[in-house]
Input
Amino acid sequence: MVLQRVGIIGGGQLAGMMASAAASLDLKITIQTPNSTDTAVALADHTIFAEIDDVAATAQLAEECDWITFENEFVDLVALSKIPGAVFRPPLNSLTSLLDKYDQRCFLQKLGLPVPKFCLGHDLTAADWQFPLVFKARRHGYDGQGTFIVRDAATLKTLQQQFPESGLIEEFVPFTCELAVMAARSITGEIAVYPVVETVQINQVCQRVYTAIELSQAVQTQLAEIACTILKNLDMVGIMGIEFFHTADGQVLVNELAPRTHNSGHLSIEACATSQFAQHLRAVSGKSLGDPSLTCGAAVMVNLLGYEESTSDYSAQRQQIAAIPGAHLHWYHKPEVRPGRKLGHVTVILETANRARLIELAEQIEAVWYPHEKI
Ligand code: ADP
Output
């Protein structure tokens, strides 16, 4: 049998976990990344060492591969659209309204979906807004980079000078929790929606993800319906992470769309019948979708974030965490540690839906991982 080949633009942990899922689907993976130390290099079948935006390298990727997908959405759609014969999944058209946070908000609003009140920085009229508000760089924001909670006019002015192309301004949403849904769409339009999870961000960076959340069936259904509406309207092929704010009066607002595998879906590797990585590859390679449902009672995922500059591999801490019953530790083998850098993650699965126990486990992991009380 001739194995089919998927190309991935990017070589970080998301590409790495996709490469790990490929073998069971009889797929080969080629990645495009400039860094020989990237997580995915050791896991992919082949690497084209080139910058992510090197279009000639992506043309070579297209020659080697049946389909090309993305580790993240920070790509030059115009340049990619000129590569003859390249089949991108998701299709480039699915991404056009998502790369800029303002365009993304407009897209969601046009669909009639609930979003926070927003405007462009230079359209801000003081009378309609009050502090705190949120300023977001329109492009290339991730893990809180480019997202600022603004509490006074002086800070706002500084940000507006720093981002002359104008940022996205949003109301600050006093959410009670943040929720996320992963959902995938196949080339035939079939959609698979994963169970709703709760995500916990600190300083705008994801720290924990829980299943077993107390959420009415009506809200769960609403989130699944929103996911389906978005995927259909984008003509999406592949998986997507959709982040929500949940407010005290029971409303949900869509915060952000990530047209790719996402941190809030990492627990699907152990907790669901089909992991988000396998699901994305299934969609990209034209297969039918797998079952997204939970195969355990509950799960929690904890990110292992850098808290210092170091070259340590933290083997003692890792061993201690891996010894926790039900724990699955994923280590990304990054050669350099920086504060806030995602170095790995741990998922612990339980047989029963025990929320209090999940919180205890997350605290136990963080107590081992961080040298002092961090959360
Ligand atoms: P990124 O693209 O960096 O992930 P997000 O827009 O998802 O940026 O923001 C990161 C985090 O910042 C969110 O998960 C949330 O905790 C906080 N945040 C973002 N927008 C708002 C908002 N409008 N109101 C309150 N908190 C927000």
Q: What stands out?
A: The longest strand covers residues 177-185. Residues 244 and 255 are 5 Å apart (CA to CA). The longest helix spans residues 217-234.
